[in-house]
Design brief:
204 residues, alpha/beta, seven-stranded mixed beta sheet, 7 strands, 42% helix
């Protein structure tokens, strides 16, 4: 039975659905996806960011008790880690007040290139750990220099073995006219992406 959209339901109800879905054999064994990549979007109201961060931590703990290991990748934390590794962090902090937003965006996009820098860093973490599910978060914090659809596009070849769940502060919409799109913060269309499933619509 297809579940109704729970994205606007109380947080407790959403937590219950996420826990039951992620811990199910159907989800973990990637059944019912029609050979599509096991990418899932968990949309939420950006105003619920603090609650969703708490929900993610609770999910990880509850899933661990069920023997399910989650690999957590926060794109904002990873970006800072990479900037420090390349010794660009101090330069960014010093130059940010002096340069335009466009220049800062271009600098960050260059240093944190999704294809050649960010994706290999995520892949390295995946290779270093045994896990059942990948959680991606920090999506809103890295906009606009990292775009969520770009991350998913580049992960398609790397993240096929385990399900990936992206916590997205906005809407993941589908329509016959425009196809599927990620609307960041419910306002900014973060470009087209159709190869993911809304976690609230997944059958268990």
């Amino acid at each position: 039975m297809m579940l109704k959209d729970l994205s606007k339901a109380p947080v407790a109800d959403r937590f219950e659905h996420l826990l039951n879905t992620i811990s199910s054999d159907r989800f973990l064994q990637k059944k019912g996806l029609g050979n599509e990549i096991p990418f899932f979007i968990c949309p939420y109201d950006p105003r619920e960011a603090v609650e969703m961060e708490r929900l993610q931590k609770q999910l990880v703990n509850k899933l661990a008790k069920k023997g399910i290991t989650v690999l957590e990748v926060n794109l904002y934390d990873l970006s800072i880690e990479l900037l420090k590794k390349e010794e660009d962090w101090e330069w960014i902090l010093e130059e940010e007040p002096k340069i335009s937003k466009q220049e800062l965006k271009e600098e960050l996009q260059s240093v944190l290139d999704v294809e050649t820098v960010l994706t290999p860093a995520i892949k390295a973490r995946m290779d270093a750990e045994n896990f059942d599910v990948l959680f991606l978060s920090g999506i809103g914090e890295v906009y606009p220099y990292i775009r969520s659809h770009n991350v998913l596009n580049n992960l398609q070849k790397e993240a096929k073995d385990q399900p990936t769940l992206m916590f997205f502060p906005g809407e993941y919409t589908h329509s016959l006219e425009t196809g599927a799109s990620l609307n960041l913060f419910g306002r900014l269309q973060d470009d087209k992406y159709y190869r993911a499933f809304n976690i609230y619509h997944f059958e268990i």
